[in-house]
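Hey, I'm writing a tutorial for new members on how sequence and structure tokens pair up, and I'd like a real worked example in the thread rather than a made-up one. If someone can provide the structure for the chain below, I'll link this post from the tutorial.
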Amino acid sequence: MRKLIVSTLIMALGACHHSDTDFKTIDLTYPITQKDSTVKDIYFETTVADPYRWLENDTAANTKAWVTAQNRVTQDYFSQIPFRKKIHDRLTDLWNYDSYSAPSTEGDYIYFYKKTGLQNQSVLYRQKKGSTEAEIFLDPNSFSKDGTTSLAGVSFSTDGSLAAYQISEGGSDWRKVIIIDAITKKQIGDTLYNVKFSSIAWRKKEGVYYSSYDKPKEGSALAGKTDQHKLFFHALNTPQKNDQLIFGGPAIPRRYVGAYVSENEKWLILYAANSTYGNELYIQDLSKTNAPIVPIQANTNNATNPIAITNESIILQTDKDAPNGKLVAAPLASPEQKNWKDIVAEKAEVLSASSAGNTIFCTYLKDAISKVEQYDLSGKKIREISLPGLGDASGFNGKEKDKETFFSFSSYTQPTTIYKLDIASGTSDIYKKPGIKFDGSNYESKQIFYNSKDGTKIPMIITYKKGIELNGNNPTLLYAYGGFSVSITPYFSTSNIILLENGGIFAVANIRGGGEYGEKWHVAGTKLNKQYVFDDFKAAAAYLIANKYTSKEKLAIQGESNGGLLIGATITQDPSICKVAFPFVGVMDMLRYHKFTAGAGWAYDYGTADDSKEMFEYLYKYSPVHNVREAAYPATLIMTADHDDRVVPAHSFKFAAALQEKAKGNNPRIIRIETKAGHGAGMSLKQRIEAETDKWSFMFYNMNVAPK
């Protein structure tokens, strides 16, 4: 067994100015992780050992025993941090407030989500139009005793009289769909099982469209590969086994398939894709029996999505010949690409469009900051929408007849606030403010631009308390994602208050691979360009240190999912980059990621080891699991969950085993495995508070900082 001794340091706490704290020695004895030297793969004449492959079997007794042993070590470690309870109590107090979602109108009711105090899950309420009295419509806190079954979406029939809601158990992406009479709230028809990555679309009051895969064989429900998505139609009060296959399956194999029905209930719009970028788009006239499914975009070369439908055309957002996005009108009579007409041209900023009240709202990103413009359905600009400040604005959705729409606005210093906007005048007012105990006026965010290794300018937003001294001694958390065209825009984090109020700094780098500057920025961090993502991130850390925001001894780095890969690759390439590393739910085995669940769909960003010798060698060179060597790594807390069926926990298991085997020095390398949880969505508030408590406790303790 390998023994870890965290060195003892007693020191004054620099910028925090607390009294001295005895950071006692913590002894850790890691569980033995058996190695199987016989497991090897050959890629283009290169033999690659995989001694921890047995950890991929999530249902095996030895894997479960390994998880139990690792969690025992991890929890024992946290139990010895003297200020863990203080952090837990503070986070509990901070999260004890009421918060709301933007409302939506369905039939005669207005629906909205509200979380009261320390409820584990937000509750869906409704109130009749013209009334101020609200009633509970669905309370997911009653779905399970421990709060780990969550409400994962609700879809209403056009008249609002019927509803179908999805539930997720233990954080799984596999869902159940329950259909109810929305007026009486009583269940009708059968429950739909084994639904995954699906919206729910009503066809009048006859039934619903939904998407799913064939369930993997027994014993691999979480990790088994899901490759052929299918769109079904379920007629109410009929057995699910009789549901009609509409699109997908063996005859039309696609990894992702979805659909929605137009507000006038005349059109079915179908979406199909094989990867996380690029999609086909089809339309079907539901007013005609057995009408053909007509292509709008018959290839996956571009990302194209419907925004609104008029009597004559369907309005689309597309990046065809416009990497930052534009709006086009496709005539319903002949919607193929050759007949598209531009109505809102591409701009220098990245577009995200939505519609409400027969107008279109174009939200643009300028250096990751939102600005919003309103257009009529012909593409004529009406006005620019005034926003509360520099931050992220989202929403602006609604029905054609709506007179008002809602949007949420947040920044790193402003909690998410809901605004009501009058569509005719463009004026807005605060609709709901959260009751969080935080005064954002004491803090500020600053956007800077730094040069990456190849000279590319990268934006980063740095948030801290006003008047902070930049002396290189501030505990700092650097966060990034860098993939799948995901834009990391300003957001408010209740958890981050712990860092900010203790003299800490939160920095977010908008590195390549994301969508902050459109598809070119995304592609610049994919496949054989992936190293640019890691270089951008390392350059962000170097900037923070060089400019005295922090030092290596006070720097932590964090990423989740694809961002977990970012952290894993960063510390295996440069183990001395920081003091603390948080690779959470990460993609760590780049040679086998595509063999689990829907992982094959990520190949647009990553490529696969089967593609070519060049692609294999590139992936092998940075794959975190395969690049752990004998070195002194940062204090590393890996987090995953036993029900994560998106990025299966085996990625984190194998990475933890490799770190525990090979890492040198006194820094801890532990893994925290959440039970009855998935990739993050749907976690109970209790689970979230516990996880964030452990994160901050680990960071502060290993930086020798005693939080207030």
